[in-house]
Design a protein that fits this description.
CATH class of the largest domain in chain A: Mainly Beta
Mean pLDDT of chain A: 87
Radius of gyration of chain A: 26 Å
Number of domains of chain B: 2
CATH topology of the largest domain in chain A: Immunoglobulin-like
Number of domains of chain A: 2
Shape of chain B: flat
Largest sheet of chain A: 3 strands, antiparallel
Order of helices and strands of chain A: EHEEEEEE
Low-confidence stretches of chain B: 1-6, 138-155
Number of helices of chain B: 11
Radius of gyration of chain B: 20 Å
Number of helices of chain A: 1
Number of strands of chain A: 7
Helix content of chain B: over 70%
Number of strands of chain B: 1
Shape of chain A: elongated
Strand content of chain A: over 45%
Oligomer: heterodimer
Mean pLDDT of chain B: 84
Structural class of chain A: alpha+beta
Amino acid sequence: MAKPSKSRSIESGEGHWIEWLTGSVSAIAVIALIGWVGFEAATQSDGAPDLSVKTISSASRDGGYLVMFDVENAADRTAADVVVRGEITAGNTVVETVEITLDYVPMHSRTRAGLIFRNEPAGRSRIFATGFSEP
Amino acid sequence: MAIEQTHVNFDHSRFSKGLARGLAGALLFALPMFLTMEMWELGLYIDRSRLLLLLLVNIPLLILLARRIGFENISTWHEAVRDASIAYFLGLLASAFVLSALGVLSVGHALPEAAGMIAIQTVPASIGALLGRSELGGRDDDDEDAQDPLDDDAQSGYGGELFMMAVGALFLGLNVAPTEEMILISFKMSPWHAIALIVSSIVLMHGFVYALSFSGGHELEEGTPVWHALIRFTLPGYAVAFAISFYCLWTFHRLDGIELTQAIMSTVVLAFPSAIGAAAARLIL
């Protein structure tokens, strides 16, 4: 396959066995890729994003309490602009509200974020998603 | 101009012209990335081990690339390493200069921030610096090709072909990989769109190289069925483009916490420009 200077090059008719091996492996990989995505396409449901918030850790920091959490999306749809609110309650009154907006929570995936409270959140806080838009 | 060994009669004007071309190439090829907001931010938050890996992977890439298209007419690995180092440094210089000129980088930045921002831009800029010499120079010596000792083996071999496809994929892929649009598109589209995109990427790749009569295009020997070239060149090329796309997205933290199918869809989106870059590399480089 010597290139005749910079002009059009001509592929030889019979390739080396390495070319065929690489080609076969690639072909199988591409077919597997299409098969996998096709399988997902056939089995996916059209339901709305299903968001849940799970607290990971809570720690005292300078100027507040940092609560890390994961937002999980169990549905086959991606949620965008997910608003997550954290509240600290004392009895029936809400003492403090903090809020954060996450860019995306993709399908079957999780996005980690943190909220910073000024009051001690242990035992009296709740974190929940309040809304999203479709991307 | 006769090509002698560089140390025998060193041509200063030729060498400095090569350096200038390298800088021009770095600017030309990496400017879209210099002007991308996501790249600045990535410099701040990119995981340092991933950044290190990217910077390390760039070294053999540049050396192999220099071996094919260097600043000078090179014939030894020793010279390839030298040219790769020069290109890396020119990339560093170009990114530091442009980022400062744009005001993205200022004296007020902490050293780790500034280092991260420059380092991540250095990779595309250094590839551009190497390509700049080859593509902007336009092979001004007629006898260069004839004397090129690599012409028959490494340059046109199957491995070389795949490597050039990888460079092309990296080149076009890197430009768009850091942008948010890549993941946004994959969120918007359904798996059916993804399948259509895979198929059209492969068809376009094949068409670019074999069907359309660009200069530098490839032709099949008489009597060879079309699917031969598809299996031997186009599909491996797409696999290379896909792998490079996956690596870019992973490096840029676009796949963190993302489920496999969604990650594949994002990669398919990026593999589209990468595949076209890979096909174009077979024609141009």
